[in-house]
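Sample entry (163 residues):
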Amino acid sequence: MAEEVKETVTEESSVKNEVEKKIQKQIEKKNEKNERLGIYRVWEYIKEEHKWESYVCLFFSLLVLILGCLMLNGTLVVKDNIPVIGSIPTLFAWILVVLGAGGLVYSVYPFFKPAFPEFRKISWLTGRKFLGNTIRVFLFLIIFTLLFLLYDSFITEILALIL
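Predicted structure, serialized as tokens:
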């Protein structure tokens, strides 16, 4: 009797293991197919790392920033009879610009957050090498500017003689 129970338990556990293996294989095949398409990783990244609230915040912060800039520019005019805002439109426009810029930074920050640790891995030039490279670039620019000025004056003289 005990041996029969052990056999049925063993058979049930082996069947269960086989079913789990089949399900796991199906999941792996589906994941491989989606990874081959490349869409899966992008969608997971957007879905997990950047919720839709970030996109809504980005949209509204851009809208507020544009409205503030239009008010500062004078393209969008606030009437004087509007309470509180009408008496200080420039201050209100600056408040809109600051809020829009803050919302923009808040909504864009999660996109760039993974890049910050990578910046620490960069090996920067020493001050002396940086200064040497900068001087070389400016010398190159000066030489080519003088060369083009010389070509321009030479061509101008030739055209003056011809015409």
